[in-house]
């Protein structure tokens, strides 16, 4: 159905007062363009609303409007609703070959594993925006491992709206809120928390799961909640998109890319740094720098989009995953604390290592990681000790502080002693002591968990690591916990090592904190208990 034919006076009233003089042909262009855009958005009833929204107020806006009119003359409305042509007509974005394949994929279930900084987020965001615009009244949810990350994902989506021509953005987008984007045709894109009970029972047309490999209840969320949520919309082109950096091998995201039966359900998109460099998205120089400065496992995950085995890691990703607590948030140094049972571990870095402080809280038999502070390289020991002293004074109930004093020299040891930090215990990292520290950490993490026949850990650990917000810190903690490798010598002793570019300071800081929580004084000596 065509938009209603308005008289010239009615058009002027619809357009309202403007700051430039429109010629007769401009009025006709405005009317034709508004009708065209309303049909692209799926409803001729939007004509009057759109013509008011796209009226030009400046010469620049008039030039863009007439330029867009000339562009649309080459395509029918049906052609303009196709994703590739839609992007060409209404945005200033020109996709790479791999982005174009993703944007134009009409499959119902799409999975994406891609090199970082290669344009994955841009392509998915533009596709979601396109789907919302051509399907009036549709609902799209964006879900990430934490609500904070979901808000970050929709913030990135809103940034892609800057790629749209002014005329198209005004015609299609009605309101941009913190966690919601609303469209003139009644469609909505919203960021939602990863809370199964919150999502259960809702109805969506499109679902996007960002960083899906990091979801703890991935199978239940997808199969038990989100697929049923789009079931009633299947005849309206409903679909699900999942994307992530490869992480654990016991998750659904891994199965999607590697299990023959699961792969049949999905349209798979995967690209690495090679495609990104070939398309000019990432420079070859940048990749060479990353290759030499990053741990190999990190580079393989982030730039090769590959799952990396961790059979030689002291703490496997599946065991670490059992410790991630989606309801737990990180504390900061300014968090008010009163009457908590706290323990700290401080790993003092050298010139090439960061100094790291970990603080845990004991609640019954469980330990909750509350704070991980990573100081920049070359931060002075006096500054670190001063900050530790201030923190323990403010929180008052840090009962033990285990500090790695290996190789720091007598002057630093005296500095720590002179600061009169309550509960200070110096620890020298001999081979035997490192094995004891690592073993205590692993035992606490295994408590409450069990290993299945495939060698994967399941259950809920008695060590809880925050996974609710500040996911960048959580990801860094997970990466460092997994980076420490081991081998067993002929005499049965364990030797720990890591690849040259890996960071493991968090591993030893957390091991010290957990170790401190097991200490008690007996006759003037400090011994382990529990």
Structure notes:
The protein is α/β, with parallel strands linked by helices. The chain folds into 3 domains: 8-75, no CATH class; 97-293, P-loop containing nucleotide triphosphate hydrolases (Rossmann fold); 317-528, Nucleotidyltransferase, domain 5, CATH 3.30.420. Helix content is 43%, strand content 19%. The protein has an 8-stranded mixed sheet, sandwiched between helices. The chain has a 7-stranded mixed sheet with strand order 9-17-12-11-10-13-14, sandwiched between helices. α2 crosses α3 (47-53), α2 (24-40) packs across α4 (59-72) and α8 (120-134) packs across α9.
Helix-strand layout with pairing:
Elements: H1 8-15, H2 24-40, H3 47-53, H4 59-72, H5 77-80, H6 83-90, H7 97-103, E1 109-114, H8 120-134, E2 139-143, H9 147-160, H10 166-172, E3 173-176, E4 180-183, E5 188-192, H11 196-199, E6 206-209, H12 218-231, E7 239-244, H13 252-258, H14 260-263, E8 267-271, H15 273-278, H16 284-293, H17 296-302, H18 317-323, E9 324-325, E10 342-347, E11 356-363, E12 366-374, H19 381-395, E13 398-404, H20 410-418, E14 424-427, H21 431-446, E15 449-451, E16 457-459, E17 463-466, H22 471-483, E18 485-488, E19 494-497, H23 505-517, E20 519-522, E21 525-528
Parallel strand pairs: 1-7, 1-8, 2-5, 2-6, 6-7, 9-17, 10-13, 12-17, 13-14
Antiparallel strand pairs: 3-4, 4-5, 10-11, 11-12, 15-16, 18-19, 20-21
Helix pairs in contact: 2-3, 2-4, 3-10, 7-8, 8-9, 21-23
Short description:
By secondary structure, this protein is of the alpha/beta class. The chain is 43% helix and 19% strand. Helix 3 (47-53) crosses helix 10 (166-172).
């Amino acid at each position: 159905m065509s938009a209603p034919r308005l008289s010239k006076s009615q058009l002027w009233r619809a357009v309202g007062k403007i700051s430039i003089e429109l010629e007769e042909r401009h009025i006709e262009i405005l009317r034709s363009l508004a009708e065209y855009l309303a049909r692209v958005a799926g409803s001729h009833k939007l004509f009057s609303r759109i013509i008011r929204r796209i009226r030009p107020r400046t010469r620049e806006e008039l030039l863009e409007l007439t330029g867009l009119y000339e562009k649309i003359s080459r395509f029918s409305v049906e052609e303009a609703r196709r994703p590739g042509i839609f992007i060409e007509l209404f945005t200033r974005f020109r996709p790479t070959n791999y982005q174009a394949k993703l944007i134009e994929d009409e499959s119902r279930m799409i999975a994406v594993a891609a090199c970082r900084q290669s344009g994955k987020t841009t392509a998915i965001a533009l596709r979601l925006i396109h789907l919302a615009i051509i399907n009036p009244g549709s609902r799209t949810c964006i879900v990430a491992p934490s609500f904070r990350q979901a808000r970050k994902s929709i913030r990135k989506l809103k940034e892609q709206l800057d790629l749209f021509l002014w005329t198209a953005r005004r015609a299609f987008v009605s309101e941009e809120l913190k966690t919601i984007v609303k469209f003139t045709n009644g469609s909505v894109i919203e960021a939602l928390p990863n809370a199964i009970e919150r999502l259960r029972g809702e109805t969506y047309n499109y679902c996007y799961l960002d960083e899906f490999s990091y979801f703890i209840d991935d199978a239940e969320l997808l199969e038990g909640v989100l697929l049923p949520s789009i079931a009633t919309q299947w005849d309206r082109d409903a679909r699900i998109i999942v994307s992530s950096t490869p992480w654990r091998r016991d998750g659904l995201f891994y199965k999607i890319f590697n299990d023959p039966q699961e792969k049949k359900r999905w349209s798979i998109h995967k690209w690495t740094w090679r495609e990104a460099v070939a398309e000019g998205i990432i420079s070859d120089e940048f990749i060479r720098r990353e290759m030499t400065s990053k741990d190999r496992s990190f580079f393989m995950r982030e730039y090769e989009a590959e799952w990396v085995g961790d059979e030689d890691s002291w703490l496997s990703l599946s065991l670490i995953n059992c410790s991630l607590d989606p309801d737990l948030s990180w504390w900061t140094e300014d968090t008010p604390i009163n009457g908590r049972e706290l323990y700290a571990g401080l790993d003092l870095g050298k010139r090439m290592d960061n100094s790291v402080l970990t603080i845990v809280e004991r609640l019954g038999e469980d330990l909750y990681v509350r704070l991980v502070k990573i100081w920049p390289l070359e931060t002075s020991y006096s500054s670190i000790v001063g900050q530790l002293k201030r923190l323990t004074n403010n929180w008052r109930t840090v009962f033990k502080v285990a500090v790695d004093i290996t190789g720091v020299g007598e002057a630093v040891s005296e500095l720590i002693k002179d600061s009169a930090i309550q509960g200070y215990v110096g620890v020298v990292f001999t081979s035997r002591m490192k094995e004891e520290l690592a073993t205590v950490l692993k035992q606490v993490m295994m408590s409450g968990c069990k290993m299945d026949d495939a060698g994967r850990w399941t259950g809920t650990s008695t060590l809880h690591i925050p996974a609710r917000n500040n996911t960048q810190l959580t990801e860094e903690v997970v990466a460092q916990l997994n980076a420490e490798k081991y081998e067993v010598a002929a005499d049965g002793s364990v030797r720990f090592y890591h690849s040259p570019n890996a960071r493991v300071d968090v591993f030893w800081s957390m091991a010290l904190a957990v170790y401190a929580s097991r200490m008690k004084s007996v006759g003037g000596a400090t011994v382990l208990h529990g």
